[in-house]
């Protein structure tokens, strides 16, 4: 586990599956959301943010700012992946 600090907020980041492909981030505040954006910026492939209740699946490669990510979490239907 590691901690990530952003402004006056702190979040925990930890592996959630042994395959190394999934992590869990406590996203109760801005630190968790900012950590997710930074993780996406470090990868060429899209990283998806999915909440515990599977209420949303946000493609972080399409999110440009913390403000945009907050809007996507608040209105998940506007940011669902397109099914072709």
Helical amount: 25-40%
Question: What order do the helices and strands follow?
Answer: EEEHEEH
Structural class: alpha+beta
Question: Looking at the structure, what is the overall shape?
Answer: globular
Biggest beta sheet summary = 3 strands, antiparallel
Q: Mean pLDDT, nearest integer?
A: 84
The end-to-end distance, rounded to whole angstroms, is 37 Å
As a whole number of angstroms, the C-alpha radius of gyration is 12 Å
- Our count of helices gives 2
Topology:
Layout: E1 2-6, E2 9-15, E3 23-25, H1 30-41, E4 48-50, E5 57-59, H2 66-74
Antiparallel strand pairs: 1-2, 2-3, 4-5
Summarize, please.
The protein is built from two helices and five strands. It is of the alpha+beta class and 84 residues long. It has a three-stranded antiparallel β-sheet with strand order 1-2-3. A two-stranded antiparallel ribbon has the order 4-5.
Describe this structure in words.
By secondary structure, the chain is an alpha+beta fold. Helix content is 25%, strand content 25%. It contains two helices and five strands; from the N terminus they run E-E-E-H-E-E-H. Strands 1-2-3 form a three-stranded antiparallel sheet. The longest helix is centred in the middle third of the chain and has 12 residues, at 30-41. The chain is globular and about 30 Å long. The relative contact order is 0.15.
């Amino acid at each position: 586990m590691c901690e990530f600090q952003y402004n006056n907020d702190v979040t925990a980041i930890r592996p959630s599956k042994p395959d190394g492909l999934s992590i869990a981030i406590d996203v109760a505040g801005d630190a968790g959301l900012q950590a997710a954006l930074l993780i996406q910026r470090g990868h060429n492939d899209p990283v998806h943010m999915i909440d515990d209740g599977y209420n949303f699946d946000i493609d972080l490669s399409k999110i440009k700012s913390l403000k945009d990510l907050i809007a996507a979490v608040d209105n998940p239907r506007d940011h669902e992946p397109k099914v072709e």
